[in-house]
Amino acid sequence: MNRSLLLSLSLLLTVGSIACSKKPASGQQTAETKSPKKEALGNFNADSAFSYIERQLEFGPRVPGSAGHRACAAWLEDKLRQSNPDTVIVQRGEVRAYTGAKLPIVNLMASYNRGNPNRLLLVAHWDTRPWADSDPDPANHNKALPGANDGGSGVGVLLETARNLAAKKPEFGVDILLVDAEDYGRSGGFNDDGDSWCLGTQYFLDHLPYREGILPRYAIVLDMVGGRDAHFAKEYISHTNAREYTDRIWKEAAALGMSERFPDRVTAGIVDDHMFLNEAGIPAVDIVECDNSHTSSFPPYWHTMQDDITNIDRHTLGDVGNLILTLVYSPKL
Ligand SMILES: [Zn+2]
Description:
Helix content: 25-40%
Bound molecules: zinc ion
Radius of gyration: 18 Å
Order of helices and strands: HHHEEEHEHEHHHEH
Oligomer: single chain
C-alpha cells in the first residue's frame, strides 16, 4: 500500500492524531478455547525488564541532543553488544524536527542469524518526548517527561529478549531495533504532520541495513507495554495492513492464556513506528496500550510528568515478554 492511500485511509478511519480514540469493535468473536494453556517459550524475566527501565530513567529524559540521550545511547549499545548478536548496527544521523530543530539521532540494531533471509524485526523507540504537553498542569507542558512507559518499557522488554537471545538463538533471523526520535512530533489533529513523528524509523527506512532484496518478513513494534492493568487490543493500522500477523499474534496470546490482556477486538489507529514500516512494505504490528478499558484511550499519564516507574507493572512486562519470546522461539517465522 502506498503512502498516500494509507494516509487517506488513516484520515478517513482514525480520529485524533496520536490521540487514540475508540472505534467500534469489529464484531469478530472467537469462542473461548478451553484447551490447556500453552507454556511460553524462552525464559523472560520481568524483574530484569523492569530493572532495564529503571536504568533508563537514571539517565533522565532521553531527548535527542541531551546529555541523558547521549549517555543512554552508549549504554544501549553496550547492552546490545553484550547480548551476543552477529552484529550491532549503529546508525547515527541528523533529522529535522517539525520545530526546525536539527536532531542528532541514533538507531541501534542487533541482528541474530544475520545471514538468514527469513527475518523478524522487533522495534521499540528509546527516545522520550521533550514536552509533557498532556500534563494537567500547564507549567509542565515544556518539561521533558520521564518516559518510563513511553520509551522505557518497549526497550526494557527488548533488552530482556536480547538477553535470552544471547543464550539461545532462534530458528530464523531476528533483528532488535531501538529507534530514536519517535516522540518529537506535533500534537494535534491527524493531519500531514503525522510525518513529524517517528523520525528515527523514517531515517532507518531511508537507510535500510539489509542486503538488497531482503526485508524482514514482518515487524512487531512495542510501545507503552509496561502499564498497570494494560490491555492491548488490535490497533487499527496493524489489523488493516498486517492482518495475518496481527491475528496470529493475538491467537498466540490467547493460547498462552492472555486473552484478557490481548482482547480480540480492533481499536483505534494511531501514528506510531509501525505506520511507516507498513508504508514501506514491511507488514508491522503495533502492540501498544491505546485502549484502556476505562478511558478508551492512552493511559491517563501519557505525555505527562507522571509517566514514571510507579506506573510500570511487572505482570504486564512479563505477559508481553512471554508472548514475544514465544514468537521468537517458534519453530517457524
Ligand atoms: Zn509518546
